[in-house]
Amino acid sequence: MNRRIFSSMFLLALLAVAATSLLTALFYYRTSERQLKTEVQNEADYLKAARAPADEDYLQALDVGSHISLFSPAGDVLFDNRSERGKLEHHGQRPEVEAALRHGHGEAIRMSDSLARKTYYYALRLPDGKILRVGKTTPSVFSALASLLPWMLGIALVVVVLALNSARTLTERIAEPINAIDLERPLEFGLYDEIAPLLTKIRRRNDLVSRQMSELRQQQQALTTITENMSEGFLIVDQRTDILSYNKSALKLLGAQRAVNGQSVLTLNRSESFRKAVDLALSGYHNQQPLQIRDHYYQVLANPVYHQDEIAGALIIIVDVTEKEERENMRREFTANVSHELKTPLTSISGFAEIIKNGFVKSEDIPAFAGKIYDQSQQMIVLVNDIIKLSQLDENSVPVEKEAVDLYAVAADVLEQLKGTAKEKNLSCELQGEHLEVTGVRSILQEMIYNLCDNAIKYNKENGNVTVAVSSKPVKKISVSDTGIGIPAAYKERVFERFFRVDKSHSRQIGGTGLGLSIVKHGASYHNAKVSLDSKPGAGTTVTISWQ
Predict the structure, then answer these.
(1) H-run or E-run covering 529
(2) Model pTM?
(3) Of 167, 472, 475, 482, which is most buried by a Cβ count within 10 Å?
């Protein structure tokens, strides 16, 4: 801006100098021309008044710079101080001579044939009828300019220097307050009224931009809040697969430490399924691809992003479906286990029944076979009942209202029921603690304690001990301890899974459905309690149910 103002002012100053010089030269030329005409006319008047023109010798003796001529009334040259007589042509047709014959005086400016210069002529009619003409050469415009040129150049040089300094100073004075305008608060600047409309527009534009930026920040903040609090991974990439935006969950799910905008998303995960999802989305296809990273399962949802009917990038959502996959695997495993557990007694029942049907059993052996069929059917009933209990606990649909239950009393009943089984292995069973009430379903709590005590007896050693302790400090809890074979550390979490057995061959001999500890875990969850297990192989196991 400063350069434009300076250039404009300096150019204006130069134009002013040039115009002034030209006008001065023209004024000087016009003034000189008028002065010349006045001198010629005065000189002619002096000669006429002196009556000297009649004396050609007098005219010849005059030492003047003017061109003096004397003509007869017919226009013949009688005298000319610049030429010899007889060598000049007839001048009767000259306009100044004709005007003098008619009106007493006349004038004309023309290029003189004899002098070859622009000359001003003034003619007077004398009393005797002769014509006196006085002429002087007038300077041309160019000659006038040439005579003034040194002065004009000197003046112009001085004016140019002054113009440069003035233009620079004025430019700084004009631009300084403009440069000092605060564009955030433009109306506080009030030096120039001419730019007030512009400043008003700037203020309105600032207000509009501020509102739009505020809305954009709110939208950005809302989007950031949403994406950063999503458990799903969120990625936006351009056509070159470069990352434009992402959230922390995406890095966590993909196992990446960090990401930089502009980095290719394919560097975060180089698996074939992830690359396929991105490539299909950038090709314009919505698609879903499974992705497994170590022991976690994900679903990659990729969608193309369009801008003006052209693919501008892709939106990628990564969903953790590990729990779903685990549940699906558990369902398949559970179905297979149930089928296997039911098939074993059914096969036995079918076999015994077929033997009896075909008459291969003696009459005295039929009760024994019938007893085996009964035992297998009872095992099936227990298995089905346990499955029903687990289903009810999973769905939180136990058809019994909760009530106050004394854990100490329930534990005493359970030990009484298992007294015979414990005696067979010479086990010592002991109940310790105090009477303690909790809110729950008595039948489920009894089933939980029964399963713990039953396992403590089944997996105990000969002449071992089983201890049931009920306590209210520091929290309400009941624990069952044994001196049995213990559980390896690798299986401490898995023993609560359905149908899981540490030693399947040994477990088959002992019996049971394999759902006991699973019922304990789900029953504790139903009663808002926690189950903890402490075990050491060869030294025994302690299982505790505690209420917060």
Answers:
(1) strand 529-536
(2) 0.43
(3) 482
